[in-house]
From TrEMBL:
InterPro entries: Int_alpha_beta-p, Integrin_alpha_N, VWF_A, vWFA_dom_sf. The keyword Signal applies. Residues 1-17 form the signal peptide. SUPFAM superfamilies: Integrin alpha N-terminal domain, vWA-like. This is Integrin subunit alpha 2. FG-GAP repeats lie at residues 22-80. One of its GO terms (biological process) is cell adhesion mediated by integrin. GO terms for molecular function: integrin binding. GO terms for cellular component: external side of plasma membrane; integrin complex.
Length: 203
């Protein structure tokens, strides 16, 4: 007891006490299977004060793309509204795998713009048959518009080739069915696109 008394002045000297007003408390609810409330962040813009709520499994169970809600602190009866950022997240010139990316897992204030940053760590980039799960982060303005997205460790797909396959379907060299099966498998493994691997079968 004496030890506690001796410690008290030291503790009190460093702290400022305050009360939490429970009768005025706002409780925002959302779908628990979408992990509503996994991350929270306050935001102030000219339209008022908001609570941002991350819901990284939004879309559960089929596709946990995730999203962020904005919850107005006034008027007291107002509901949270989903921002639908997941549809706007995009990195140009990259084959994106956005399924289950879990956007809204992190929320942080962006002091530079007054808006916020939110990330989806399971966003992946596809290069041919390779997947790089580098994650994606999006920059959102104070009026909740998605300004841009970036991935911290974007890969350069290096496997682009130009292929011309010349086939002889006369069966004189090898049974045609086996050749066709091989070609089908081969082409499925290529990352085909205007600025990627291009192929042209010749008969
Ligand atoms: C996303 O996750 C669900 C499990 O919730 C899984 O069934 C589904 O196959 C996943 N989708 C992809 C494209 O990985
Ligand atoms: C995407 O690719 C196109 C065509 O290759 C190019 O003109 C454009 O600058 C690229 N955009 C970015 C953001 O790299």
């Amino acid at each position: 007891m004496r030890a506690a008394l001796l410690l008290l002045p030291g503790i009190l000297g460093c702290c400022v006490a305050y009360n939490v007003g429970l009768p005025e408390a706002r409780v925002f609810s959302g779908p628990s299977d979408a992990q509503f409330g996994y991350a929270v962040q306050q935001l102030i813009n000219p339209k008022g004060n908001w609570l941002l709520v991350g819901s990284p499994w939004s879309g559960f169970p089929d596709n946990r793309m995730g999203d962020v809600y904005r919850c107005p602190l006034r008027p007291p009866a107002a509901e949270c509204e989903k921002l639908n950022l997941q549809a706007a997240v995009s990195i140009p010139n990259v084959t994106e795998i956005k399924s289950n990316m879990s956007l809204g897992l992190t929320l942080s204030r962006n002091a530079g713009t007054g808006g916020f940053l939110t990330c989806g760590p399971l966003w992946a980039q596809q290069c041919g048959s390779q997947y790089y799960t580098t994650g994606v982060c999006s920059d959102v303005s104070p009026d909740f518009r998605l300004l841009g997205s970036f991935s911290p460790a974007l890969q350069t797909c290096t496997s682009f080739i130009d292929v011309v396959v010349v086939c002889d379907e006369s069966n004189s060299i090898y049974p045609w069915v086996a050749v066709k099966n091989f070609l089908e498998k081969f082409v499925q493994g290529l990352d085909i696109g205007p600025s990627k691997t291009q192929h042209r079968p010749r008969r």
